[in-house]
Amino acid sequence: MQRSRATELLDFYRQQLLDDVVPFWATHSPDTKFGGYFTCLDRHGSVIRGDKYVWLQGRGVWTFSALYHRIESRAEWLDLARLGVQFLQKYGRDGKGHWHFHLTRDGQVVTGPGSIYSDFFAVYGLSEYSRAVGDEKTLELARETYWSILRRVRDPQFQAFYPFPGSRDFSRHTLWMILLEVTQELNEISPDPRLQDVVEECLKAILDHHVRRTDGAILENLSLDFQALDTPQGRLINPGHGFESAWFVMHQGRRRGQSEVIRRAAQMAEWSYLRGLDQKYGGIFAFVDLSGQPPYSLEWFQKEGISWSDKVWWVHAEALYVLLLAYHLTADKRFLDWYEQVHEWIFAHFSDPEFGEWFPYLYRDGRPKSQQKGNPWKGPFHVPRALLLCYKLLSEMTSDTPPVIV
Fold it and tell me: Contacts for 145-149 with beta carbons within 8 Å, 24 or more apart?
């Protein structure tokens, strides 16, 4: 990438992050009466309903904490992060320390600990907040939750994997990838040899099992002994999870200075892009089936009325960052070409220049399918995180520090 193009993109992402996306959430999301964040918002940012989803509360804490810690120490961002932390501390857990899934605006329980992903994103947000402000009490809550997660997901009878179906009858790529990211981030803040052991376990599960070299694909579900399953769930490919998992693995490769890990993660990004690309209309499909037939539909997609061929905001946000990162670390110009295509498609279709942020779901041809800016699944996370990470990476790319080329 030419230095002039990298500088242009650097300025563009800073503007998108700080003048468009973050102001949308900072203005419309905070609940100054009860704490936490509204996420069910219409196109203009008006609150549709005040219910709160714990995984999105944790994600919001991560975003505002990361802005404060990684971009600029603005008091308003710290205040917003603290608003989420205090709500989580007050209302987020049951008597066993397990995190609820769905609360009313004022913190009453609608759905209790039905999703381990609430716990994961509580750890993710609380860890980042503790890193931003040096809060040992919050870090201890994150550590306590983390070890509780690990105990439960190792239990063969554990079933709280909503919105993903089934109990422990699968090895789940989505579980391994989020466990990897949460573990490596917690280990950066609070190093522990046991955490590095979990990182190794996650890398092995992802790179040696869920990444199927013979198929050129990352499979979402395998048998518990890591065998492929010729069933709709077994053939399911989620390009967005492939992208996200790939950059989680790349980050670990960079931390270790292991070029082979980075190379294999870049291959994950390549396969996810090629499998998910819509050759007719552009953009990336929500889901695909390894066999090429229409794929299995997840429950939350059914609830939102989303088809496998629709275009989903977070899939493209993850693609944006991982393709740029893969190019930076490998110097393979195919990744640059793919990145530019995704960048162009996003800002031609997802971005709302009139009212800010991105539309959540598009029809296959790129027309908005929903104009809500937030819902039980979309909050202040994937879009601002991707823009923040792209901005930080482009800052590195426009500096005089050479990348590690693999």
Answer: 145/97, 145/99, 145/119, 146/182, 146/183, 146/186, 148/97, 148/98, 148/119, 149/116, 149/119, 149/120, 149/123, 149/179
